[in-house]
Here is the input.
Amino acid sequence: MTKEQSHSDHLHAEGIINKDELTEEHLKAIDSLSKEEVEQIKKINKTIQKTSPGVGIML
Here is the structure.
């Protein structure tokens, strides 16, 4: 993730969330997460994708 890219932008680019389906409040909450929390979401999503393709994390 680049320093200019928000957490929500990064997770959207990774295909974990769809920013178009989230409210501004949801995006603010995601962007307030720590870098470690975002990395944890990415790891969880990767595990889910391995065990059940086509399933994402609903935030």
Summary: The chain has a mean pLDDT of 87. The two ends are 19 Å apart (CA to CA). Residues 7-47 form one domain.
